[in-house]
Specification:
Layout lengths: L9 H34 L8 E5 L6 H12 L2 E2 L3 E2 L8 H11 L3 E8 L4 E8 L4 E3 L15 E3 L5 E4 L10 E3 L15 H16 L4 E6 L4 E6 L4 E5 L4 H12 L2 H4 L6 E8 L2 E6 L2
Parallel strand pairs: 1-5, 6-9, 9-10, 12-13
Antiparallel strand pairs: 2-3, 4-5, 6-7, 7-8, 10-11, 11-12, 13-14
């Protein structure tokens, strides 16, 4: 025999399920809150907060300058719960990017943890390779007080003092922005070719002190003797050097006074033109 069957209204079943779901939901909310609260409390412990920064490689920038910027990036917290100064959470990439943006003189920056409360900030500074002295070539000695340092990639990173003599090779040409510092003088691949041309000419006994980039692709190399070399900035520097060496070896060229050379034109492939001043 079967006992009496009682049908429970579906509305009561639904209400019971809702109460159960609410109870479990409340439990998980409390549990998550306790976990997050515990993690937040642990993240604020002084034992795991960045308390000191050791600096390395900054010859021209003071520790104080760098420390001020790093402290600024370590201020505040994530979601008002986890401090940015926490050794496991500090914005490593953000700090490195901010310092490089603020100080173009720096070529590379890296921050790493030493302990649970200290980090090391290492930088590599750009080395002066040449000078950028303005958009237009102004002569062998004028305008040197307005020059800026270039590194080996053609990046302009600092104002240069007023040098006497040709201490550094000089470059001229327009920039894309008005402020030189932080600008790229020329595409790195083009600048590499220009530097190779300077070195190649020097090896063959041709000394110069400046290059000016004119309307692309034209460029001019200014000689210590007073003349200039006209060339295509995109030409292979080895080919340019070889063409000049070939011309200089000809009898007609060697019979002339080098001080009277007006120009050598290398813009037409293997055809080289030159002219002497009267």
């Amino acid at each position: 025999m079967f006992g009496r069957r009682i049908r429970i209204p579906s509305s009561k079943i639904a209400a019971r399920r809702r109460r159960k779901a609410i109870a479990w939901g409340g439990f998980f909310v409390v549990l998550v809150g306790l976990v997050v609260g515990g993690l937040s409390y642990g993240a604020h412990r002084p034992e795991v907060l960045v308390q000191s920064v050791r600096f390395s490689g900054n010859a021209s920038l003071s520790d104080r300058e760098l420390q001020s910027l790093i402290d600024e990036k370590l201020e505040g917290s994530y979601l008002f719960l986890f401090p940015k100064r926490n050794i496991f959470l500090y914005p490593k990439r953000g700090i490195e990017a901010a310092v490089l943006a603020a100080y173009p003189r720096l070529k590379h920056a890296e921050i790493s943890s030493d302990s649970l409360s200290s980090v090391t900030f290492s930088v590599e500074e750009r080395e002066p390779h040449a000078l950028w002295c303005g958009e237009n070539y102004v002569g062998p000695s004028e305008g040197r007080g307005s020059c800026y340092f270039l590194d080996t990639t053609g990046f302009i990173f600092a104002k240069a003092p007023d040098f006497s003599g040709n201490t550094y090779f000089r470059y001229y040409g327009p920039l894309t922005r008005g402020t030189p510092i932080g600008e790229q003088y020329a595409d790195p691949s083009v600048f590499e070719q220009l530097s190779a041309l300077v070195d190649g000419l020097k090896r063959t006994g041709i000394d110069g002190f400046a290059i000016a980039l004119l309307d692309a692709p034209e460029a001019e190399f200014y000689l210590d003797s007073g003349g200039k070399i006209l060339f295509d900035r995109y030409q292979n520097p080895e080919t340019l050097v070889d063409n000049i060496a070939t011309v200089r070896a000809t009898e007609a060229f060697t019979q002339e006074d080098p001080a009277r050379l007006d120009y050598i034109d290398l813009r037409f492939g293997n055809k080289v033109y030159y002219k002497y001043r009267e």
